[in-house]
């Protein structure tokens, strides 16, 4: 029985695959709208190339052997927004008061283009006015000297390079602060907390090479077509090799169903596409943990029946607490699993059986897993499921958290954290000859609360847009209005 389509004003129904000619058309429109016709090809061809720059669109890694075109539709849009030829000049700012600009949407403000000068707010005219860099540096120094280190927040985003982020944390710690609200606090904080507890490190354990060797991919809580589209090339290759891709997602995302690779001459010429998901389960929103427990429960049942499903040697040598984990899974009823996951027992048992057959499994996940009040538990359940069959630390297997920006992980690695390790601080002291602060600082949530409470009096941002990225940003931003 066909369901009646609901019409949405201004939105046309689309029956085609993700990618394909539609992606090329959207890319062309973005380029034409934002960039100079001569500069655009040169800029895009440098994207994700050894002598170029990392795309700010997502964090999917680069292939060792690159092709000429190493960008996707969303990446091209992100690059064109950054490299736009539009400019916000002093003349524009003189005609538009801050009060008027505050009424604009974020989309409208970004559409005006890039700033051309350092700016300072002029209260009498309610406008931003250009200043020389020396004046800007002097004013920043004056403000910082008038505050204690606890009153200043140092925000970073994954758009910063390793070198810039390292110098930023060094600057803040020489000033005396560990207040490092970061974009990762609001996306993969559950990964940063959960994975070290489970496997000893807050990073994924796979490389692109592992996807060439894997026998099964379980994708849960993410939509690569929108959030990390270059991953679609990898999933496309897996699907063409008949590697099973099992998807858990509350919504049926078109890219996870069908994808036409813009770099495939055959698919572009024939208007054909490739089915991506071999099996697609629409898990209930928030029901991921229950689904994962259901898979683990049947894996334990298969072990009891056959005795060859768990990697007992790996578990004994490399894990702790398996008996407690198994007892918790055994105590979880199928009734509660089905109710909370929105899936039936038979569906989850089929996933468990596919997992038991695979000798090398990768589980990929995104913010559909982490953006919950039980996000850390979700992450740990994924790790536990992989550990049951020794799918950590071997070719073609592992855990793959999908980061949102191209250098979120790099920022963390070079010291952007409100809870620095003592060893890291000791090395800073040895190399640079100062005593870094050891007291833990603010993460993104704590920084926002400090602004609301009036405890924070200055915010310095390295990339990103803290006000827009944070929840309750309007209240926090209003508190900042009186800063000078």
User: Which second-level CATH architecture of the largest domain applies?
Assistant: 3-Layer(aba) Sandwich
Work out the radius of gyration: 25 Å
Spatial gap, N to C terminus: 63 Å
Oligomerization state: single chain
Number of helices: 26
The portion of residues assigned to helices is 40-55%
Can you say what the CATH homologous superfamily of the largest domain is? Dimethylsulfoxide Reductase, domain 2
**Shape, per Cα inertia axes:** globular
Protein structure class: alpha/beta
- CATH class wording of the largest domain: Alpha Beta
Total count of strands? 14
Output the CATH topology of the largest domain. Dimethylsulfoxide Reductase, domain 2
How much of the residues is beta strand, in percent? 5-15%
Largest β-sheet summary? 5 strands, parallel
For the record, the count of structural domains works out to: 3
Domain Molybdopterin oxidoreductase: 114-465
GO cellular component, one term: membrane
EC number: 1.2.1.2
Pfam family, one: Molybdopterin
